[in-house]
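Need residues for this backbone.
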């Protein structure tokens, strides 16, 4: 037996443990079939998978949210193909792109100043010196050398030319001479060009100086203006077109409300001043101190208030002052005058000179006092003046009587005219409406403000209330404006009475814009308030026993709903209840008088207005119009014409007996029709004309419905039975138009029978020979090549998906086990720390107890 050599590799193949081998049994055994997965090692495979996950998934879990490298993320640093210049350009572009925002596209003025050759583009666009490098001659462009030099150098010179020197020039020397000659010629050209430019500029400067002298002798008519081209004109307009600035921004809604409030307050202040007889022209110049800094003074607005003195030291401004109970001032004649007694003022101006109104403004004084002649005096001068007070008063009285004797008549007329003007201005100011109003605290307060006012004034008052108390001006204004909306609804309800039907509609038309504005400010309050009003009116309607029509105020609220809210929504919390209310009124209320018919027509008109956009059908409205036509048909025979409730088959309230074909009528419905009971021939004609027009509008509105012919079937029958010979020609024309329109709808409509949808015939299956190359023991269904390939891919996708999900579940379980182990390890460490802390604490406590025992023994 031979010994194995040392160099031979040992047999590393391990024999599997029989207890770890798992045998996969098969349901059916096929002879000659080889199976790859008949035996498996699940424990080995599991250990291998765990070892693999520890090297990949576990390492990623431990390194998540950690970084131990510094990466240069500058643009271009990771690219090897980019040069340094390309990197700089890319970084500069990124900076510019970052600084760019969406708002900058509207900024037409660029902040950067672009230059070219040391000059800005704005200077270049002036075209003062439009010279360029293209001015060089053709000779310079061809090579900067003349023909003779080139001929000698290339064709006749060189080695063959006799230079008079010994030996011939080398090729290097010839090239150097050629370069030197070329540079010399370029330098000469440049020098000549610069000299030419200097002379040109000098000539231009001298010509500008001589130009005024040349044009001095010419007349304006002789100077011919150059014809401006249309293109130049448009270019100049675009160049000097005004551009928007930052100061042109639009104001916000809050700023506009604040400005409007301030404007109304200023107007109210001016109105109050006019009520008290104050005029802007009556302001008396106020004395200003010499050391006044004029911090808030604007010279352009009020130049008369500037204090100045003449050469003698006297004030140039006429002012008044009072010293020791008497007035000191200057007369128009320039003489000094003291205080005048009240009895000496014949026209009563002395009593008014010192009074002030409630606004703190001084009233007019007939004789203006002035301190312009009052010089600065010492205390001795003042004492002398007080001592001689009695003598001066007598002297001043005599002087005043002489000075005012000639102007007495003119003064009296001026005073009377001024008083009449002031009285007229005060009366006019009292009649004006105040410009500022506070929001009412209750409905009674609102009634006090609106009582006795016309509809126009009421609209202005509510508008000013809203502007002065905008929600953006104070916190509680929104709630107060919501209460104002409720008060206005109650105000409309109180105004809507049969006795004041005209005034009711006027007030409604005046307050509708303000109600709409209040709705936009607080939509939720408007929704809830109108909903409560409609609900309350419906509850009152249900309490009526005889089923009469409700009050006129309901019509006002129904019309207001169409103005404030969207009536085209499929469901609306305010409009939908109104539709239900319309249906109940038109279906249950009895038609017995003129106001009932007018009320119903008003409701039907509102229905048409509500459904103009949504194209909905309310059967009660069409039925009501048919009932009105039925009431206009004479009931002569025994046979009754059927009609829908609430109309009665025997009712003939709108039958026109008298011949009114030649009369001229106004076919519009009137406000009084909602109040009066008696039915006249004029009302019958207007009611039938309005009914025909509503039928026409409803037919146009519902023309898209497939059941349009059936909806107007009853109306078509009534129109055939309605006699029109007694009606005016306009009504007859409208009747023929509506009848023809409904008849044409019926003729043009073609009914199509309902049939089952035809099935698409199935194509015959084409049989192909079934060829199986290898029999695998399974029968496979016959399919086309494309379908088989698709099912194969789908099966593979499902298989891979299941495998991926299985691996994800295993990865999750592996991480879960690792996290549990970490948590257990942290808990054990914490438990050990706690035990150690308790042990140390117990040792300290034992030492303390020992010390305490020793102290007690001592």
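Answer:
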């Amino acid at each position: 037996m031979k010994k194995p050599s040392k160099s031979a590799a040992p047999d590393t193949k391990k024999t599997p443990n029989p207890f770890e081998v798992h045998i996969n049994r098969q349901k059916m055994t096929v002879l000659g079939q080889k199976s790859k997965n008949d035996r498996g090692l699940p424990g080995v495979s599991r250990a291998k998978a765990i070892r693999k996950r520890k090297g990949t998934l576990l390492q990623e879990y431990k390194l998540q949210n950690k970084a131990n490298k510094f990466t240069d993320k500058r643009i271009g640093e990771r690219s090897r193909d980019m040069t340094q210049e390309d990197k700089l350009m890319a970084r500069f572009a990124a900076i510019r792109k970052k600084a760019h925002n969406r708002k900058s596209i509207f900024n037409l003025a660029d902040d950067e100043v672009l230059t070219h050759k040391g000059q800005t583009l704005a200077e270049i666009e002036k075209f003062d010196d439009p010279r360029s490098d293209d001015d060089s001659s053709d000779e310079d462009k061809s090579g900067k050398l003349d023909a003779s030099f080139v001929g000698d150098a290339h064709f006749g010179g060189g080695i063959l030319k006799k230079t008079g020197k010994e030996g011939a020039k080398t090729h290097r020397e010839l090239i150097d001479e050629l370069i030197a000659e070329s540079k010399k010629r370029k330098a000469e050209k440049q020098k000549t060009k610069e000299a030419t430019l200097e002379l040109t500029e000098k000539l231009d400067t001298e010509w500008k100086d001589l130009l005024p002298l040349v044009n001095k002798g010419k007349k304006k008519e002789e100077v011919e203006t150059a014809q401006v081209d249309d293109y130049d004109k448009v270019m100049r307009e675009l160049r000097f077109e005004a551009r928007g600035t930052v100061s042109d921004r639009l104001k916000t809604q809050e700023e506009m409300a604040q400005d409007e409030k301030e404007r109304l307050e200023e107007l109210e202040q001016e109105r109050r001043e006019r009520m008290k007889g104050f005029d802007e022209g009556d302001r008396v110049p106020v004395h200003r101190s010499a050391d006044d800094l004029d911090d808030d003074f604007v010279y352009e607005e009020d130049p008369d208030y500037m204090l100045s003195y003449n050469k003698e030291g006297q004030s140039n401004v006429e002012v008044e002052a009072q010293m020791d109970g008497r007035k000191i001032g200057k007369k128009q004649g320039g003489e000094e005058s003291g205080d005048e007694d009240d009895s000496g003022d014949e026209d009563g101006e002395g009593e008014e000179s010192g009074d002030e109104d409630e606004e703190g403004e001084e009233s007019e004084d007939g004789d203006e006092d002035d301190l312009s002649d009052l010089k600065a005096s010492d205390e001795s001068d003042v004492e002398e003046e007080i001592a001689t007070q009695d003598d001066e008063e007598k002297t001043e009285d005599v002087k005043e009587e002489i000075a005012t004797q000639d102007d007495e008549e003119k003064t009296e007329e001026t005073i009377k005219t001024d008083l009449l003007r002031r009285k007229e201005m005060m009366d006019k100011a009292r009649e004006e409406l105040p410009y500022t109003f506070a929001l009412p605290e209750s409905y009674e307060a609102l009634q006090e403000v609106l009582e006795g006012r016309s509809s126009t004034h009421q609209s202005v008052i509510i508008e000013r209330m809203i502007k002065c108390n905008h929600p953006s001006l104070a916190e509680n204004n929104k709630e107060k404006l919501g209460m104002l909306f409720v008060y206005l609804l109650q105000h409309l309800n109180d105004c809507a009475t049969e006795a004041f039907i005209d005034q009711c509609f006027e007030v409604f038309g005046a307050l509708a814009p303000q109600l709409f504005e209040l709705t936009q400010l607080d939509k939720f309050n408007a929704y809830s308030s109108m909903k409560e009003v409609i609900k309350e009116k419906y509850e009152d309607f249900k309490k009526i026993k005889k089923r009469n029509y409700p009050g006129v105020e309901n019509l006002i609220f129904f019309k207001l709903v169409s103005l404030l809210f969207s009536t085209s929504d499929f469901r609306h919390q305010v409009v939908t209840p109104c539709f239900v209310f319309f249906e109940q009124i038109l279906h249950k209320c009895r038609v017995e008088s003129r106001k009932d018919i007018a009320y119903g027509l008003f409701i039907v008109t509102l229905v048409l207005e509500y459904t103009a956009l949504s194209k909905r059908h309310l059967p009660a409205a069409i039925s009501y119009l048919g009932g009105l036509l039925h009431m206009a048909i004479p009931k002569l025979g025994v046979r009754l014409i059927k009609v829908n409730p609430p109309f009665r088959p025997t009712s003939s309230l709108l039958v026109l007996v008298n011949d009114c074909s030649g009369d001229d009528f106004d076919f519009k419905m009137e406000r009084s029709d909602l109040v009066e009971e008696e039915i006249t021939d004029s009302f019958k004609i207007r009611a039938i004309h309005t009914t025909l027009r509503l039928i026409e509008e409803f037919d146009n509105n519902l023309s898209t419905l497939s059941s349009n012919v059936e909806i107007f079937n009853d109306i078509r029958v009534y129109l055939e039975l309605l006699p029109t010979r007694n009606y005016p020609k306009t009504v007859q024309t409208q009747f023929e138009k509506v009848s023809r329109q409904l008849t044409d709808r019926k003729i043009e409509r073609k009914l199509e029978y309902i049939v089952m949808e035809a099935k698409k015939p199935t194509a015959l299956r084409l049989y192909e020979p079934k060829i199986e190359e290898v029999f695998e023991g399974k029968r496979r269904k016959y399919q086309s090549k494309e379908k088989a390939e698709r099912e194969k891919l789908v099966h593979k996708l499902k298989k891979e998906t299941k495998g991926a999900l299985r691996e994800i579940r295993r990865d999750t379980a592996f991480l879960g086990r690792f996290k549990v182990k970490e948590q257990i390890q942290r808990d054990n460490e914490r438990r050990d720390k706690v035990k150690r802390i308790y042990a140390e604490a117990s040792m300290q406590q034992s030492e303390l107890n020992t010390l305490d025992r020793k102290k007690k023994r001592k």
